[in-house]
Amino acid sequence: MGYGNLAYKYDYAEEKRQEQPKKRVKKQNTAPARGKKKAVGLSYASKVASVLIVAAAAVFMIVQYVTVNETHTALNAAISEYEFEESVTAQKSFELEQSIDLSKIETEATSRLGMRRPEKHQVVYVDVKKSDTTVKTANEVEGFSNRFAGVIKNIKGHIIDFFSI
Asked: End-to-end distance of the chain based on CA atoms, in angstroms?
């Protein structure tokens, strides 16, 4: 007995026919397609121009960033110098207040300048009819409109800080 295949030959013939590619026939469209446009590619000059524009924008942004950064650095230096000078001024004013002795001033005024204290008949008292105090109520300081304006200013400051370079 031989070693053969007992399958029918029909299946083999169908597989062979399916493997062969079918030739497609192109229809020639004589009428132009409506609504469809051919994709237009960018020309070499427009590509170069777009790259140059992007490069110029990048250089401009870098220059602006450097300028803003230098300004912030100068501002921070000026603020720190101002705070130092303000502390020196406060210290000097405190020392000045400590050095002032009213008895010393009085002796200097009486001896060197020839001044003397006023007598009772030389003192004139003035009555002020209007109050010399200022009254500020809590509604003026902590009212809704003031709080709302403060919130708006705070939000505006945060937005400016967020979008600044």
From this structure: 92
